[in-house]
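Is NAP placement plausible here? Inputs below.
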Amino acid sequence: MRAVICRAWGGPETLTIDDLATPTTGPGQVMIDVHAAGVNFADILMVAGQYQEKPQLPFVPGLEVAGTVRAIGQGVKRLSPRQRVMAVLDHGGFAEQAVARESDVFPIPDDMDFATAAGFPIAYGTAYGALRWRAGLRPGELLLVTGAAGGVGLSAVEVGKALGATVIAGASGVDKLALAAARGADHVIDYRVEDLRGRLKDIAQKLGKPGIEVAFDPVGGDTFDALFRTVAWGGRVVVIGFAGGRVQQIPANILLVKNASALGFWWGSYRKHASELLAPAFAELIGWWSQGLLKPHVSHRLPLGETAEALKSLKERRATGKLVLTLKE
Ligand SMILES: NC(=O)c1ccc[n+]([C@@H]2O[C@H](COP(=O)([O-])OP(=O)(O)OC[C@H]3O[C@@H](n4cnc5c(N)ncnc54)[C@H](OP(=O)(O)O)[C@@H]3O)[C@@H](O)[C@H]2O)c1
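Reply from A.M.:
I modeled the complex. C-alpha cells:
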C-alpha cells in the first residue's frame, strides 16, 4: 500500500511517500480501506516529535480516517466487511489501509461523504467532550471559542449552538469570522486587530453577563491570558491546545477570586480511559448532523502526495474547518 512515512523528527517537508506492506488485522481490530484522511494540528506536532505521544520511528502519521471495512479481526462484533465507517487511530491514517481498534470505529450515515466523515471524529468529538462532559455547558451560557474557524474551533461553535449557548467566536481575519458567523456564532472578534479582553468585557456587559461563562481555547498563550481575565464568577475555561505556540501559566489568584475552573481536556485519552462514552457521543453528533445542526466545513481536499503541503497550510493558518486527504472517491 502507498503510505506517508515519517523517518526523522522534523517539519512536514521531511515526510516521504513509499510502498509499505499492508498491515495485518489482530484480535479486536478492524482494517479499513481508506478513502479519506483528516489532517490535524496534532499531526504537525507528532511529526516534529512534540506531541504528547511519540511513536517509534519510522511511522505513518494520520489520526483519523473514513473508508470501508476491508477485514475484521477475531472477536469484532459491531462491524462487518464493506461497512462505511470513520475511525480514530494512534497514527497510521495517511495510507491506503489503516488498522483501528473496534471501539474507535463508528459507522457513518449513507448520505455522509467520505471527506466529511474523515474530518468528523476528532473535531466534533473534541468539541462535544470538552463542552458537554468537561465544562457542562448549559443553555443560555456565554461561550467563547478561540481559533473559531479552525478544525476543533469551528466544531465548538456549532456544538455550542446545538447545546443552546450564546457563542462568541475569536479568530483572525474577516473571512474566518464570516465562516464562524455562518456556523452560528452570535458575536465575532478579530483578535489579530482588536483588543480581545476589552471586546469580551463589552459583549458580556451588553448581554447583562458578568463575563465569559465557558471558554474553549485551542490557541493558548497570550490569547488565553487575555480571555482568562474576563471569566465570570464560577466560569470554566477548557484548555484544548496551544496552537499559538506558548503553553500558558494559569494564575491561581484569578481561579480563587472568581471561583473559576481551568479544565484540561484531551479527547484522545478518553479512548483509553472512558471509551464507553464515545459511541453515545457520536450517536448524538450524527443525529445533530442529520438534523442540519452541524455543517462540517472542509476547506481543502488534497491527494496523499500533497500531505506536506496540507500540514504546511495548517501551520501557516491558511486552512479553515478541516483539511482532508482524499485517496479514493
Ligand atoms: N485537547 C484535545 O483533545 C485536542 C483535540 C484536537 C486538537 N487539539 C489542539 O487544538 C489545537 C487546534 O487544532 P486543530 O486541528 O483544530 O488545528 P487548526 O485547524 O489548525 O486550528 C488552529 C487554529 O488556531 C489558530 N492559531 C492561532 N495562532 C496560531 C499559530 N501560531 N499557528 C497556527 N494556528 C494558530 C488559527 O486560527 P486564527 O488564525 O483564527 O487564530 C487556527 O485556525 C491544536 O493545538 C491541537 O493540538 C486538542
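Short version: The first strand starts at residue 2 and ends at 5.
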